Every structure is written in C-alpha cells, then in structure tokens.
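Duplicate of #3305? Posting structure anyway:
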C-alpha cells in the first residue's frame, strides 16, 4: 500500500474541508432565498379601496381592497388623514367620529410605495323630525 506524505495528506484534508464549507454556505443561502420568496410572495403593483364615499356621524363601514396582481401579497397597513373625522382599525373598519372629509390610505406591507386611498365625507344628521 502506498503511503502519502504529510504535505499531501494535509492538502487533501484542506481541499475536503473547503468543499464541505462551500456546500454548507450554498445550501444555507439557497434555503434563505426560498423562505423569503414564500414569505413575501409577489409584490403588489396597485391597491384599490372599495367603500362608501359618504357616511353619517357614528356610521361604521369596513373597507375592502383589491390588490393587483391577484397573486400579490395582500397585507396592508391602514391610516387616516384626520382622526377627528374618521378612525380606521387594522382590519379596515372605519368609524365616522366627526363632520368633515378625511382620506383613508391602505399601504402595502411589502412595498410601501404602493398605496390606495379613498376620500370619505362625514355628514351630520339634519335636525329632529317634526311632530
């Protein structure tokens, strides 16, 4: 049986160790890419908000969204331009709390430059019924 010199043996062990490290790094990077892809899905390109543009004081409505493309991530954050007129929950439920006009905005959670908005006017009820 032929014997290997110490230098040759160390060279072989070093090459094997480098190959093992390279395989581990490539596998880890590949799995990270797959996890990120599954978590975020397709990035949205537009958001449309559907709901009533007029509400009476104390009315409540739940706005819905249409995200394009249809296979895009549907998660959004909601905001109001004037919480003295309209409040909005994390699920898009809007409550009319004061007279005036405010804008409700839905912003994509994965692509914050993509937004949809709706302007809503809150109307106070007129007087009391006549007898």
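Output from current build:
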């Amino acid at each position: 049986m032929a014997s290997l010199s110490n230098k040759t043996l160390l060279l072989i062990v070093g090459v094997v160790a480098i190959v093992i490290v390279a395989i581990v790094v490539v596998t880890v990077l590949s799995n990270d890419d797959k996890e990120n892809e599954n978590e975020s899905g397709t990035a949205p390109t537009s958001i449309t908000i559907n709901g009533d543009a007029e509400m009476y004081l104390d009315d409540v409505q739940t706005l819905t969204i249409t995200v394009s493309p249809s296979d895009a991530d549907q998660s959004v954050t909601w905001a109001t331009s004037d919480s003295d007129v309209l409040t909005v929950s994390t699920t898009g439920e809007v409550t009319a709390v004061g007279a005036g006009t405010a804008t409700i905005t839905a912003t994509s959670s994965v692509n914050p430059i993509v937004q949809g908005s709706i302007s809503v006017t809150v109307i106070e009820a007129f007087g009391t019924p006549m007898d």
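Confirmed duplicate; merging threads. DSSP finds one helix and nine strands in the chain. The chain has two domains: 1-40, 46-123.
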